[in-house]
Design a protein that fits this description.
Blueprint (H helix, E strand, L loop, with lengths): L2 H12 L11 H27 L5 H26 L4 H19 L6 H4 L6 H8 L8
Helix pairs in contact: 2-3, 3-4, 4-6
Amino acid sequence: MNNTLLKDFCDNIERCNCDKIHMVPPKFLHAVIGMSDEIGEIMEILKRALYYGDKIDNMHLLEEYGDLMFYIMLDCMRIQQEWDTVDLFQVFDMVFLKNIEKLKIRYPEGFSEAKATECGRDREAERQAMLDPKNPDK
């Protein structure tokens, strides 16, 4: 790599806007970093099965899924506090209900590989299906 290329690369990095962290709710930050960490642990189980032939340890997976649910609930609690007009059960239900609505739009006749690809998706219709008609911000 020549010095000009490295300098241009570093100049682009320096222009990145990283000063908005104060605008991110701490619980959201904690939840997303936590979920990422737990997914990494689940990926390790997958890697060991794929490349080393290890048996999938379902008890270990259940433990990691529980950790993942902890972080999901942490952020559902943040959302409930932010919205203040719904209870925690309603927020948690929305996780599933909005996903079901999105999947009905994506796969109206059931799952298909063609619809699962990026080119076969109608992202706008999926987004519209997930909007709360009473409050488009939700």
